[in-house]
């Protein structure tokens, strides 16, 4: 896996339709994902992107205290239309796409230049 630089944080504001409760019986396995997504929304925080996958989807890392008061670490793929990008200083993220990229808050990508 390679690294890329991006210049935005994400603010998650909407729960995807397939994660809305009550979940259908065939979607019960998504209960934890729904809870984590809702936690991120309720936090009202800006989140750093952890990874960009091979389909250019953004992932964040969520670390929180679990119901048993033990630390939990989760990764969450963000669905299009559920978040907004806010410009910030460049930082590095894991990138599964081919070719090194710099992604911008305007959603554009350009080849990165060697430093």
Overall pLDDT score: 89
The proportion of strand residues reads: 35-45%
Low-confidence stretches: none
Secondary-structure element order, N to C? EHEEEEEEE
Separation of the first and last Cα atoms? 19 Å
**Count of the separate structural domains:** 1
What class do helices, strands and sheet pairing give?
A: mainly beta
Report on this structure.
- This protein has 115 residues and is mainly beta.
- The chain has one domain.
- 11% of the residues lie in helices and 44% in strands.
- It is built from 1 helix and 8 strands; from the N terminus they run βαβββββββ.
- The protein has one helix at residues 31-43, and strands spanning 2-12, 46-47, 49-52, 58-65, 71-77, 83-95, 101-103, 109-111.
- Strands 1, 2, 3, 4, 5, 6, 7 and 8 form an 8-stranded mixed beta sheet that branches.
- β7 and β8 form a beta hairpin.
- It is globular.
- The two termini are 19 Å apart.
- 14% of the residues are buried.
Could you list some keywords that capture this structure?
8 strands; 8-stranded mixed β-sheet; 1 helix; 115 residues; 11% helix; mainly beta; single chain
List the helices and strands and how they pair.
Layout: E1 2-12, H1 31-43, E2 46-47, E3 49-52, E4 58-65, E5 71-77, E6 83-95, E7 101-103, E8 109-111
Parallel strand pairs: 1-7, 3-6
Antiparallel strand pairs: 1-2, 1-6, 3-4, 4-5, 7-8
């Amino acid at each position: 896996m390679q690294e890329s630089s991006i210049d935005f944080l994400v603010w998650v504001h909407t729960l995807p339709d397939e994660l809305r409760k009550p979940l259908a019986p065939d979607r019960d396995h998504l209960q934890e994902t729904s809870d984590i997504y809702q936690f991120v929304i309720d936090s009202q925080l800006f989140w750093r992107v952890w990874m960009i996958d091979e389909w250019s989807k953004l992932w964040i890392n969520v670390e929180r205290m679990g119901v048993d008061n033990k630390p939990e670490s989760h990764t969450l793929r963000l669905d299009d239309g559920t978040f907004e990008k806010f410009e910030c200083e460049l930082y590095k993220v894991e990138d599964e796409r081919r070719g090194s990229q710099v992604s911008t808050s305007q959603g554009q990508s350009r080849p990165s230049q060697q430093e």
